[in-house]
Design a protein that fits this description.
This protein is of the alpha+beta class and 399 residues long. It has helices at residues 2-5, 249-259, 262-271, 273-276, 287-295, 303-314, 321-329, 355-373, and strands at residues 11-17, 22-27, 31-41, 47-51, 55-59, 64-70, 73-78, 82-86, 91-95, 106-109, 122-127, 131-135, 141-146, 158-159, 183-187, 190-198, 202-207, 212-218, 222-228, 231-236, 241-248, 334-338, 344-348, 389-394. Strands 1, 2, 3, 4 and 5 form a 5-stranded antiparallel β-sheet that branches. Strands 14-24-21-20-19 form a 5-stranded mixed β-sheet. Strand 6 and strand 7 (73-78) form a beta hairpin. Residues 4-236 form the HPS5-like beta-propeller domain. It comes from Amphilophus citrinellus (Midas cichlid). This is HPS5 biogenesis of lysosomal organelles complex 2 subunit 2.
């Protein structure tokens, strides 16, 4: 039945509504349908997976490039326009007035953090010339973000165990790129809304709220990218699947130090020195670890690299003054320890604080630690594939 619904066409887009096990399907002819999946009890035998009849949602003017679903609304991006569909009321309307010609993606982005929590999701729709529309949940275009000139910056290198990182600081010419897919992504150390997109030769991450290119890096032969938190799983034209971890420079260096990849760690330290010399990096990369790193390099074969690392060490700042002030503000009748997530857990001595206040403080600290663990940028060592896992140092560009 499903093949009959899209017979003679190629399926070009899929989108899940996981809350009700519904999958939306778009094809090369512009038809969009959905099917509902579920389970049926079979007595003592167990349950069986059941697929219900396919239903057509709409047919748009051209090939479906990308689908998105959020809070009862379906977003359809075709070769010429973006459309919104209220799947419950069966209402349809266009996003913006200007057409386009080509494969351009679109996605929802929930407002799930900070002061915007609880607000309706936003839409982001790719436009020609490295532009992206930002629109309301009702499809009204609010602003246009232009990234063409910003993409004149050099690409960040991939940090991989197979090859030495290669960074060329020479500025490039502005890039006019068509973004065929858009995905929303949020990092722990960056509360902004970030958009991830890619072409067959590069991956890009933008922060529309402050008009920044957070990252772009060259990767050849990309066909598709799946996103899970800060992990990217990339399908290449050759059929190869690669795994990228999006890390801050500090976290990347911390991981390499644990692996005892001394040469690679030293090269990354010099490349991203402005990120690791700041005081906030001392918690994860104390000075003694940098000194130990230098001692592992051979003076007979890596003299130049040792000299560069020594220069970096001379620029290292002490722990953040903000952290120092937090410690000094803790009165003499209190002791404390620092959780892995950076939260100071205050342990009051008897009589200096009520049991109720003490319990509340400790419970808050523990809950914050558990919550932040969910967003850890570093995988356990036994979970990392040494051949396929690479990391992009983000948030700061190398010098």
């Amino acid at each position: 039945m499903y093949c009959f619904e899209h017979r003679g066409q190629t399926v070009t887009a899929l989108c899940w509504d996981t809350s009700v096990l519904k999958v939306f399907v778009g094809d090369s002819g512009g038809k969009v349908s959905f099917l509902r999946a579920g389970s049926s009890k079979l007595g003592k035998v167990g349950s069986a997976f059941v697929i219900f009849p396919v239903q057509t949602v709409t047919t748009v003017d051209s090939k479906v490039v990308q689908l998105g679903y959020q809070d009862g609304r379906l977003l359809v991006s075709s070769l010429t326009r973006c459309y919104l569909c209220d799947t419950e009321k069966e209402k349809f309307w266009r996003v913006g007035n200007k057409e386009r010609d080509g494969e351009y993606g679109a996605c929802f982005f929930p407002q799930s953090r900070g002061l915007l929590m609880g607000q309706p999701p936003l839409l982001y729709c790719a436009r020609p010339g490295s532009r992206i529309w930002e629109a309301s949940f009702n499809g009204e275009v609010l602003s246009t973000h232009q990234f063409k000139q910003l993409l004149a910056c050099p690409p960040l290198p991939l940090i991989t165990f197979r090859n030495e990182p290669n960074y060329n600081p020479v500025q490039k010419t502005p890039q006019s790129v068509a973004f065929p897919k858009l995905h929303g992504i949020i990092f722990l150390n960056n509360n902004y809304q970030n958009l991830l997109t890619w072409t067959d030769s590069a991956i890009y991450i933008f922060t529309p709220q402050n008009g920044q290119v957070l990252l772009w890096t060259e990767i050849k032969g990309l066909v598709d990218v799946a996103v899970y938190r800060s992990e990217l799983f990339c399908l290449h034209g050759s059929g190869r699947l690669s795994h990228l971890s999006l890390l801050s420079a500090e976290r990347c260096i911390e991981r390499l130090l644990r692996r005892e990849s001394w040469l690679l760690t030293a090269a990354v330290c010099c490349m991203f020195q402005h990120a690791i010399t700041t005081g906030r990096a001392r918690k994860s990369i104390p000075i003694d670890r940098l000194e130990h790193l230098k001692s592992q390099l051979s003076s007979s074969t890596h003299l130049e690299l040792i000299g560069q690392l020594e220069e970096v060490i001379t620029k290292v700042e002490p722990l953040d003054s903000a952290s120092s002030s937090r410690r000094s503000s803790i009165s003499s009748h209190e002791s404390f320890n620092v959780l892995d997530c950076g939260i100071y857990r205050v342990i009051s001595r008897r009589g200096s604080q009520s049991d109720e206040e003490m319990s509340s403080l400790l419970n808050h600290s523990v809950s914050e630690e558990e919550r932040l663990k969910e967003f850890s940028f570093v995988q356990d060592e036994d979970q990392v594939d040494h051949e396929e896992c690479v990391c992009c140092a983000i948030r700061s560009s190398p010098r």
